[in-house]
Give the backbone structure.
Amino acid sequence: FDLTTPPHAAMAPRCIAALLVVAAGAAAQGWSPCWSGGLNFASCCMYGGAECWDNVYTYERCCMKEPLLAQVEATAIQRLTEQDLDCGCKKPHLDAPGYSGGDFEWCRFRQAIMLNQDLRPFYMPFLQIPLEKLAACPLGAMTMTLFDAYLKMSNSRERPDLAQMPSFLRSQQALDVLLKAGKVSFPALAASGWMTFFQM
């Protein structure tokens, strides 16, 4: 599993006083205060580098302990309905399928899943998407984090512990939030085109 291109991320100044307020609100609401702008779960926990962390926001805190979802992600999942599961990808692409370079696109990724294509070319572009784009397609994000867990399990020489795998933990939390919201059924998830259960 070769990852050689780090994602772009810029650390914004963080004020300790603001941190205490935000962290308290996050704990009450069930969302993580770790993520904003170019810093998100995908860019920091799935690949990540030293630029993601400081003395307060650490890998262990932000990637290994719930809540793992940013506020905008948790809100998007809670609002998700069965009519939203395709992430606006109702019309198929008529050009060549698969990743064709450039920015990550949810609709191309979904098309590749539905056509049973190699998903690995989408991986590095996915790590560079901003938080708002990550939150825009909750089921697509869940599928990619499960795909990340699959890649790491299949390339591990030792039996992996899912409880120590950030991507699986995030997928687990996202599914839990989705089911608790009660707006999406399992049949709708299965018919969404994202093949989420296949990744599981």
